[in-house]
Design goal:
By secondary structure, this protein is of the alpha+beta class. 28% of the residues lie in helices and 31% in strands. The protein has one domain (7-217). It has helices spanning 34-45, 49-52, 65-73, 96-114, 151-167; strands at 4-18, 90-93, 118-136, 172-176, 184-188, 195-208, 213-217. The longest helix has 19 residues, at 96-114. It is globular. It starts with a strand and ends with a strand.
């Protein structure tokens, strides 16, 4: 059984990355337009070891390339909902609140391992666009096991589905958020499906002794 396919043109999806992994486009203040930025980025790429290092995106040399590479190269132990330990994926939400709820859940889960809910974490948003045909399990109850809120159950079923989709050369999967009721998420299986990566807002998540968290826009 395979999910149906949806034709989408979803602009400015949100992926949140911790501040320690975030590097802004340092050339942007030097130019007045994206076209001029692209010219400077190309010049930088001729001398930068970071930019000229092997990439999963041989035809893409823009600022967001390193974030895309990192999403696919680094994984959690045990993988995530729709990827195993062997290869990562690009996860994004269709709105800020869904993206925040997703990362807050995982941070809270990590804090629960040590039993101390005193923490602050700053995340930067990355916007990206997705255009084309993507598999879709919204309003598909037969895939409910993939969306189980217990990772030990949901991740196993989700990774099994993802393996089948990747084998069929799926670009990615749209699915309802497990951590934010009514929210929508997307996971991209192919780096080339991710377009127009640009920096977005900055958010601070705070835990003051309890699992409940607060969020502050910075």
């Amino acid at each position: 059984m395979m999910p149906s396919v949806a034709q989408i043109a979803q602009h400015r999806t949100i992926r949140l990355v911790p501040t320690c992994y975030y590097k802004p486009p340092v050339l942007r203040p030097l130019v007045d337009s994206d076209a001029e930025l692209a010219i400077l980025a190309d010049l930088e790429g001729q001398t930068s070891a970071r930019v000229s290092s092997p990439s999963l995106l041989s035809d893409f040399e823009g600022w967001g390339r390193t974030f895309i590479d990192a999403a696919f190269r680094y994984t959690r132990t045990g993988g995530s909902r729709f990827n195993g330990e062997q290869r990562g994926a690009w996860y994004a939400a269709f709105d800020d609140q869904t993206a925040i709820a997703e990362v807050a859940y995982h941070r809270t889960r990590e804090l629960s391992y040590i039993g101390i809910f005193e923490d602050e974490a700053v995340y930067h948003a990355l916007h990206a666009s997705f255009i084309g045909r993507f598999h879709d399990i919204r309003d598909r109850p037969e895939f409910a096991d993939c969306l189980h809120d217990d990772p030990s159950i949901g991740y196993r079923h989700g990774q099994e589905l993802a393996a089948k989709l990747i084998e069929s050369e799926s670009r990615g999967l749209i699915y309802p958020s497990v951590r934010h009721d009514g929210g929508t998420c997307l996971v991209a299986f192919q780096p080339s499906a991710i377009q127009d990566v640009t920096p977005g807002a900055r958010w601070r998540l705070v835990w003051n002794g309890r699992p409940e968290w607060t969020v502050i826009a910075e």
